[in-house]
Specification:
Low-confidence stretches: 1-22, 99-109
Distance between the termini: 67 Å
CATH architecture of the largest domain: Up-down Bundle
Strand content: 5-15%
CATH topology of the largest domain: Amino acid/polyamine transporter I
Number of domains: 2
Shape: elongated
Structural class: alpha/beta
Mean pLDDT: 77
CATH class of the largest domain: Mainly Alpha
Helix content: 55-70%
CATH superfamily of the largest domain: Amino acid/polyamine transporter I
Strand order of the largest sheet: 5-6-4-3-7-8
């Protein structure tokens, strides 16, 4: 019993902590539920219909889709778009380069589904699936720009009610200052202030529903009759096209916020267990939002013309300033949550070679997922401030926010449906029911919010498409490079022939030669050997394998092997998309040399002399003392005239990206003085 209580107590503690990290955008959504209304004369029936829409949207999408179904679609504890695509990658062969099936991925004893066979046989479908997954990740990056802007701006706007002389311009400037300060603090990491997140979110989720209950009792005690779907049908029947357009209006921003919060909840599965997330959502977030929305609606039914500032006007004057402080702090926490999520997405994208290399810094020794990217941070800061100063009235920011988040939720629904059919083998009837219900409901929101693209919604959509194109081109270029290396690889027989050349000298030292292929050596090595005419006494051909899993167990992280030639070894370093990339030079060399010595001992049987064993181990130690060097290829493409227009354009853009990104080895923690780059051109 004691162990049971301890277990439940820990789950509740984690659930409480989850409030401050995962649900930032979700819990701050009441700030902008009713900032404006397109209905000329909103009536009691209109408000009841709107609350009914919000209640059922929150219940179905937040409670059913994300908290009940999506949390099950984890990849070794990690969630988000990467996890969904990872599950599909490991179940079916979805290589985007050719239509040839890979036995390593698809030749299994388990019978493949018809949908899985379709993707394996259709190159266009596989490329489209990859682009959709990448677009979903880019849309979440767009959240990192818009959520801080709209959250802080909406919270700071509350200062105008007691001080009417303060103009919108001053609110925008003050919001920009707050965001700049927040971005400048990112380099110190969130761990130093994260202990404040949970109390802030706890205060927010406690105080807003209390105000909501007070408003319900005072203004409209029968508000919960609107839970009946009858009011939804009545609302659309009476308002028609005007009601449909209202979905894309400002009160949709409340939905967008809990969509963004729900996506954050799904993406942060790796930081919190499923139980804590579900408990936090079901027992705190969900009832808090329902009570707060109900309280705002009750106030507006009695004060129908106050919808332009529905949140702050429904707060009693006696608690106005405490609520203003709490809401502002909650908006900052929401912003921090999305900024941190953006860093994590970029880190995962770089780790899997989906994004050009940028600097990734780990700001905590305890939390592996706490990362920071200087380039990304300052780009986000500039974009956030620009969004506030250019679209400061909140209307166009909200339109942009709506476009991004509704697209993300639709992409998640699509990928999750594929996972249900291909991976989970869900009965077709249930999978179809899930897809129809959520795709239709979310499709209505998407169709409505797309009417706002000319009014600011095009900005994040354009940014997301540009980012998606960059990621797709980068990944395509990297895959084409690997394909060339596999076609022109140097096998072990060819390596023996090259090393048998009397002109090849063995020089003292330990060399890590980086190659992207495992079955053989990269053609860069042949180019290097031909021109340098030398090879280090101990040469370790090292492959960095980023596999489509969340995390690789420590004992499987570094795998060493003897390649059958004196002083020549192989090493595979395996990383998942949620693992740290840093090899920390000295520690990495120590791990590999220790692994080599253990491997040598295992390979020497009783028939071989102990002297040979001692000599080989001594050679490894001496080579390490003589000096360590890391050699990698610096390859470029030479595009032939026979290449297709697709290859010419994609690879040309990849070359531009490759010329302006960071080197891979510094990102691994290896000192630059120990690095050598060997240039070579690959013809395609």
């Amino acid at each position: 019993m004691i162990d049971f209580l301890k277990s439940k107590g820990r789950t509740l503690f984690i659930a409480y902590k989850t409030l401050g990290v995962v649900f930032g955008g979700l819990v701050t959504s009441p700030l902008y539920v009713y900032p404006s209304m397109q209905l000329k004369s909103p009536t009691e029936e209109n408000y009841l219909g709107i609350f009914s829409i919000m209640f059922w949207t929150l219940s179905l999408i937040g409670l059913v889709k994300y908290a009940s179904i999506a949390v099950r679609a984890d990849d070794q504890g990690e969630g988000g778009t990467f996890a969904l695509y990872s599950l599909l990658c490991r179940k079916i062969n979805i290589n985007i380069l050719s239509s040839k099936r890979s036995c390593a991925n698809s030749c299994t004893t388990e019978k493949q589904s018809k949908l899985g066979k379709f993707f394996e046989e259709s190159l266009v479908a596989r490329r489209l699936l990859l682009f959709i997954a990448i677009l979903g990740m880019c849309m979440l990056i767009g959240d990192g720009v818009l959520t801080p802007a709209i959250s802080v701006l909406s919270a700071m706007d509350g200062i105008r009610a007691p001080f009417p002389s303060i103009t919108k311009t001053w609110v925008e400037i003050l919001s920009a200052v707050v965001l700049i300060a927040l971005f400048l603090l990112q380099k110190y990491g969130t761990s130093r202030v994260s202990f404040l997140f949970s109390p802030i979110m706890g205060a927010w989720t406690l105080t807003t529903p209390l105000v909501g209950i007070f408003s319900i009792i005072k203004h409209y005690p029968s508000i919960y009759k609107a839970i009946s779907p009858h009011y939804i049908f009545t609302f659309f029947w009476r308002n028609g096209k005007e009601g449909w357009l209202l979905l894309s209006d400002h009160y949709l921003k409340s939905h967008c916020c809990f969509y963004a919060g729900s996506e954050a909840m799904f993406a942060d599965l790796g930081h919190f267990n499923k139980s804590s997330i579900q408990i936090a959502f079901l027992f705190t977030i969900y009832p808090s939002l329902v009570l707060t929305y109900a309280g705002q609606t009750a106030y507006l039914i009695r004060n129908p013309n106050d919808h332009k500032d529905g949140f702050y006007k429904f707060i009693p004057s006696a608690v106005y300033w405490p609520m203003f402080v709490v809401s502002t702090l909650a908006a900052i926490v929401a912003s921090q949550s999305l900024i941190s999520a953006t860093f994590s997405i970029i880190k995962q994208s770089v780790a899997l070679d989906y994004f050009p290399r940028v600097k990734i810094v780990h700001t905590s020794t305890r939390q592996e997922g706490e990362v920071y990217s200087p380039e990304v941070n300052y780009i986000l800061m500039v974009l956030c401030v620009a969004v506030i100063l250019i679209f400061g009235d909140g209307s166009e920011i909200g339109n942009a926010f709506g476009v991004v988040v509704t697209m993300v939720m639709l992409i998640t629904t699509t990928l999750l449906t594929l996972v249900m059919i291909i991976v989970w083998r869900t009965p077709p009837v249930l999978a179809a029911l899930y897809f129809v219900v959520f795709f239709v409901m979310e499709g209505v929101y998407v169709s409505s919010v797309f009417t706002k693209i000319p009014e600011g919604g095009w900005i994040p959509f354009a940014i997301s498409l540009i980012l998606a194109f960059i990621m797709f081109c980068w990944f395509y270029g990297r895959q084409r490079k690997i394909e060339y290396e596999l076609t022109n690889r140097i096998d072990m027989d060819r390596l023996k022939t090259l090393l048998s050349d009397p002109g090849i000298q063995r020089v003292p030292g330990l060399c890590f030669f980086y190659t992207k292929i495992q079955d053989g050596l990269t053609p860069v090595f042949g180019h290097y050997l031909k021109n340098m005419k030398s090879l280090h006494t101990i040469t370790v051909f090292t492959t960095l394998r980023y596999i489509m899993v969340a995390k690789v167990p420590p004992h499987e992280r570094i795998i060493v092997s003897k390649l059958g030639l004196k002083g020549v070894y192989g090493c595979i370093v395996q990383y998942g998309y949620a693992d740290s990339l840093s090899l920390e030079g000295v520690d990495f060399v120590l791990q590999v040399t220790d692994g080599l010595q253990n491997q040598v001992r295992d390979l020497f049987d009783q028939a071989q002399s102990t002297t040979s064993l001692d000599e080989e181990i001594a050679d490894i130690k001496e080579a390490k003392l003589a000096g360590v060097v890391h050699v990698r290829g610096k390859t470029r493409f030479h595009i032939s005239k026979s290449s297709s227009w697709f290859d010419r354009n994609m690879i040309a853009f990849y070359e531009v990206l490759h010329s302006n990104c960071r080197s891979a080895l510094p990102a691994l923690g290896i000192p630059l003085p120990h690095c050598i780059e060997v240039g070579m051109r690959y013809e395609v």
